[in-house]
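Sample A.
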Amino acid sequence: MLFNSVDFLIFFPVVCLVYFLMPRRAKNLWLLAASYYFYMAWNPKYALLILASTAVTYLGGLLIGWAGGLEDKRRGGRLKKLFLGLSFGVNLGILAVFKYLGFFLSTLERVLSTVGVAFRAPALDILLPVGISFYTFQALSYTADVYRGELRPRKNFLTYALYVSFFPQLVAGPIERSGHLLEQLEADRPFDYLAARSGLLRMLWGLFQKVVIADRLAIFVDAVYAAPASAPGAAVALATVFFTVQIYCDFAGYSNIAIGAARVLGVELTENFRQPYLAVSIRDFWRRWHISLSSWFRDYLYIPLGGSRKGRGRRMLNILIVFLASGLWHGAQWHFVLWGLLHGVYQCVGDLTEGPRRRLRELLRIREKGLAHRAAATAVTFVLVTLAFAVFRAGSVSDAALILRSILTGLRPAALSGGVLYTFGLDALDLAAAGGSVALLAGVDVVKELRPGQNLVERQCLPVRWAVYLILIFAILVLGVYGPGYDASSFIYFAF
């Protein structure tokens, strides 16, 4: 069930109405049933995978807690490691089979063929369960937190099952930490008018980002990337910039709808984006982009590997490992791995050149926090991120090389004159609507950057607030991109 579908427009109000009419003891059971129904709308049998992941990590938490209470601390420590390993092994094994087995076998076939060994990878008919990477990581964080002693193991299976399957963030995050979400699900959550109003506004903004901006830009992007070799370099470059905006609006739009829906239900989810295209470095970008995944890899991979505690060389190796893992998390294709590697290399190069760049600024008397320097750093970061997204969007490594070559060597804006620009699915009116919407998005992000933590709309008087609500609803209904009968398009990160 998609957030931007008519089905969800019916589903969500019904869930909320019943939820707030029910007694407290029944609320979580109702949300659990609604969450499983929400997920089963895609494929009922894959609910068994969530249930399996939930059962394994729930049991793992109980066993780790039991082992930690043994009088024999050495034996308890060994058992804790065993139960942690089993929990991670089973969950990552399920993820590997459904997401990476075909990729591994096809890669093995190519590698063996280069050394003259005949091996044909079997054809696998395995459909990737939507959201499996998200809920697997969320479930594993619970086991890891219990192992570290940061969280007590939960005995209420229904509440824990709701933590793993909570429908607003089930299929595309944010990836919640166990302590943050579990404690809220265990608390009383009465109806709060101001929270509900704020949540509904957040949902409207997320829908605007998705159907007005992302889905419109997707038309141009899909047309160019379907045959990049036949498109002018300027069109490929423009499509890549469009994709950089599209994926932001698509993913941040989902996160905003998820955060808003959860807020209506009395739950605060983790912020997943913080004006990422205003970042002044690649490191700063990853503090702002998909924050819940970045922090997950930091806490559960980068720091256990040693972080920055073992010298510069080891720190850079750890960074490369983390970003290779992040690329592979995004998809079982080599171009996703290359995308992750690019971001790792970006950060390593940034670290190596930090000293020379600082001395150059001092020599030229450039203030690091000055507006001109910040603008230049933001522009360079955006270009680097955009070039990496060209690799991300490409269908393969060879396509990525072709696209980057086309951008870097064939960038002639004049090639889009004479109506060529309108041959990729968007007419002048569509491009004007896209430009105006992106300008509004940029303005909102700048205001949020300058005034963090303030919601200017909610502070306005009633007529102004309602004017904003109605304008957003009008834009979604009139300017939104839909298929026949207001068909909804999927979110990009559902594929991961």
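Sample B.
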Amino acid sequence: MKKIGKIVKIALVVLLVLGTFVYLFKRSQPKEIQYQEFKPTMGSISKSTVVTGSIQPRNEVNVKPQISGIVAELYKEAGQTVQQNEVIAKVKVIPDMSQLSSAQSRVRLSELNLKQAQINYDREKALYDKQLVSTEDYERVSQALQQAKEEHAIAQETLEIVRDGVSSSNKSGSTTLIRSTIAGLILDVPVKVGNSVINSNTFNDGTTIATVANMNDLIFDGNIDETEVGRLRVGMPVRISVGALQDVHFDAALEYISPKAMEQGGTNLFEIKASVRVPDSITIRSGYGANAEIVLQQAKDVLTLPESTIQYEGDQTYVFVHNGTEYVRRDVVTGLSDGVNIQIKEGLQEGEIVRGPKIINGK
């Protein structure tokens, strides 16, 4: 039994040694190199760039008051539509004390002048009726009375405007009523009832009562690098995708390319704008982030091949074509590339077999 056990152990060792030898021998043998194979096919190639930007209304205005004061009432809120000249808010005037004092003083002076002019007129009228003064003197006094009345009316109207923001003779055009200058959607109402507001002047832009925009006329606004702006032209088609709306794309047309660059992070960028055509069934909000894909170059119905099959040697480009038994080198003339496929202008025919990259791990 002991002799049999020894024989079994020796046999196992021999088998292990032989197995190891066979494994190492097979590993040491050179493997046949295999390559992927491709055939040139007819297709289209386009080279495009993607510009980051946002969707903005073409016409967006800030509605500001014509006078300073306090917001007394708000008739509209963000999200509501408004027509041109429709009232958005009402402002209560807080008069400037120096202007108010001056207007009151002017009214009192005009009252005195009017009273004196009336006395002079009454006296002259009585004399004129008795034919004791000439017609010329009477008309001069009558004209002075009319001027005094006019000056008093103007002084009174000025006082009402300074004190109340509107005169009794022009209530329909009241400056205390803040009206929208365009028809559209109210994007923002940054004030509340009780807030102080000021009108636009030389030293201040004025307080914005509301921001109104026409959301039926939208544009894409973005910036493109100077290395690509030279390939753009007005009228080029643009494909817009909005991040907030998945799987939704819009057609647009490039309508503006800035003639002047702006520096940002050490890079020169040019502003571009494209008119966006949005279907009525889709709601777009102002400021949505968006990407614009612009086709810079395009070749249709051309012979194409994966760019991974192309070899480079100096200024020459070539591929390896299978002639039935082996791969042979052949020079080709290439054209437009989209980074994946490349146009073959000369050197290949449709259907020929071209060697691609090596197959690694069976792939």
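B remarks: Residues 97-129 form the longest helix (33 residues). DSSP finds four helices and 22 strands in the chain.
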